[in-house]
Amino acid sequence: MKFKKFGQKGKVLKEDKIYEGPIFDLVKQEIQTPDNLVVKRDLIKHGPAVNLLAITPDHKIILNEEYRPGVNSEVIALPAGLTDLGETDEEAARRELKEETGYIAQDVKMMTYVTSSDGFTTEMVGLALVKFDPNVRGEQHFDSDEFVTNHLVPFEEVLELVKEGKIFSAHTVASIMYFNAFERDF
Asked: Which residue numbers delimit the Nudix hydrolase domain (predicted)?
């Protein structure tokens, strides 16, 4: 195998917490890498999350319009959220779908996992493929600081939105392209 060091861990020699918050912590670390280098890095420790490609039997996808402070703008993205402590990724996907859209997941399959930016954050995001019936819907339950507008969009139009650069969330693009490449017959 060409990738002989894949998965080897570094050794954290020292860690100082700089900030502790409700969603992430910021730490300074001194790390001995698998190559025996000693490096100093700032790291955002972030819990796991899920990103949902929720699909109807006729291949319509739920897209959200939601304000995101990182780009100070309304964006188009798939539903997503943090995984609660003790919750599996599948359970988080079911919960997030209900909270953000009111829809009920019929089937959940984890497609793959991606990192947000593994150079400075521990966040790992599970890309979930969720089947649901658009005719079965309950109430949405947003967090107190969010408001989301949902749209059901044919998959081919979703691909066009990615191509046009109107969808640029990394997790959303990864979910859509992974589905398109490997999961089209789900």
From this structure: 45-175
How large is the C-alpha radius of gyration of the chain? 18
Fold category of 49-183 in CATH: Nucleoside Triphosphate Pyrophosphohydrolase (3.90.79)
Is the pTM value of this prediction over 0.85?
Answer: yes
Under DSSP, is residue 38 helix (H, G, I), strand (E, B) or coil?
strand
CA angle (147, 151, 152) in 5-degree steps:
150
Domain boundaries, the chain: 11-46, 49-183
Kindly state the helix (H) or strand (E) to which residue 94 belongs, with its residue range.
Answer: helix 89-101
Residue burial 113-128, b: 16+ Cβ < 10 Å; e: rest: ebebeeeebbbbbbbb
For the stretch 23-80, pLDDT in tens is 999 999 999 999 999 999 999 999 999 999 999 999 999 999 999 999 999 999 999 9
**Any idea which residue has 């790992």 for tokens?**
124
| β-strands 24-32, 38-46 pairing | antiparallel
Which H or E element spans position 98?
helix 89-101
